[in-house]
Amino acid sequence: MHELAIAENLVDTVCTRAAGRPVRRVTVRIGALTAVVPDDMRFCFDLAAMGTAAHGAALDLDLRPAMVFCRVCKIDQRLPDRIPLCPCGSADVTVTTGRELHVVSVETG
Fold it and tell me: Which residues are documented as binding site for Ni(2+)?
């Protein structure tokens, strides 16, 4: 479960930025290709936040689909799974979304 390591790093980063202020809400953008399981991420965030300025903070996840630009079809396609192939079968694609994993906002108070 790599979500725990991600959550621990997230809590450390957010608490450092909060500079002692209590963290109320954290929004994180997560792409489908990161293989992060949303429910596991929420659980691990709550666990990692215990005893920190982020204890009790809400974690909002902005889940992004995996999209590729197919050089054969010349169009953007949404991937039905985590395999970066165009639905036409071509592997000649550029991933345009789905690899995101970053903090969008932090609410303190």
Answer: 2
Give the start-to-end residue ranges of the domains of the chain: 3-66+97-108
CATH topology of domain 3-66+97-108: hypothetical protein PF0899 fold (3.30.2320)
Instruction: Give the tens place of pLDDT for each residue, 51-106.
Output: 999 999 999 999 999 999 999 999 999 998 888 888 888 999 999 999 999 999 99
Annotated binding residues: 2, 70, 73, 86, 88
The token pair that represents 8 in the structure block: 């621990």
Confidence (pTM) = 0.85
